[in-house]
Amino acid sequence: MHPKLRPVAAPSAQVHLDRAALARHYTAVRERSRALAAPLSAEDCQAQSMPDASPVKWHLAHVTWFFETFLLERFEPGFEPFNPAFRVLFNSYYNGVGEQFSRPQRGLITRPDLAEVWRWREQVDARIARLIATTEDSEVLRLIELGLHHEQQHQELLLTDVKHLLSINPLRPAYQRHWPLVSVARVEPRWVDVPGGLVEIGHSGEGFAFDNELPRHREWLEPYALMNRLVTHGEWWNFVQDGGYTEPRWWLAAGWDWVRNQGVRAPLYWTLPQDPNALPSVFTLHGEAPLDPHTPVTHISHFEADAFAHWASATHGEWAGARLPSEAEWENAAAALPVQGNLQDGEAFHPLPARHDAAGLLQMFGDVWEWTRSSYGAYPGFQPAEGAVGEYNGKFMINQTVLRGGSCATPKSHLRASYRNFFPTDARWQFSGLRLAR
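RESULT FIELD:
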């Protein structure tokens, strides 16, 4: 099992927000978590659908634990914890802090109840506000900024974990009833050439970054091309109908074993039709819906993304040579583009079709995290940060694959071209999809 989802790491040393801006950002992020939980009942917030997912209540408590443990405990005069038992209950994987409660059993933590978690959050918020107003220590401001990006990671996890939870319910309940899709014209797939050469990869030093985005360094890229848009549900349905899940030649050996052992026949949340001429239905945060062939395919594993690329290259002449991009190719192409698209802030909570058949690259940010072919590892000269807040990058640089670009569940202010997400090759309950390269 993957030990940690979207790990927390220490940021670069510079403080990127002044005191007043940090206070406003703190309030906005904490209120956003409350808003994301608002459509849910206490029962919704308690349940845990699988070991890789956590209850909403646990997410709300854990991010509060971060501020109490790494800020108040260290820097507040006369510190006293809200409840000393919470130090173990809501620790995730910070071994430097101490013991943790079993991850697969987080749904069994019925006490504290949700109301007490909200009271804890309110108390910690008031104490952090005083700390921001009074501290002269730049490390405090740096750690608060880190804590806010950590909370934004958990906002995304809250949505993806709730989607998995609701999908298990035979009533197929909606998190949000509003349906965001509108009829749009099909955007034809085409290649966008990128010259390559000696390029710089990694965080540039402006704004916040996690330590796994550092140091910025040079890499050589041969000329390459990226598809102008993401692979769609309709294109994936063609793969399914062509026997993509039954033909071993498209799959990595470990991927084919996974398909057979797990009985995988389609992306997560698809319901395949009995009528071969009908389209599947798909479960979304807006409830069960007919599959829209123009929306980006999502909830696929790296195994599936890689198999699709092999199939596309062999069966579509215009896609000959198709493969997954490297993370350096992706970042080089995205570096000059604005961070805009279908992100959490738009509250669609579902991948949307490419809306404009414009020249250049579309959907580089938002909609779905894009699988790359790059293993998650250290950049040349990488040095893990010291202390407990630095535990969550260097020690996970094995058996993970990099994804780029954010998703419909990612907050806009949390994202940048150098952001490195990573998951094991069989993970697919996150909003993960693909873009072809060659």
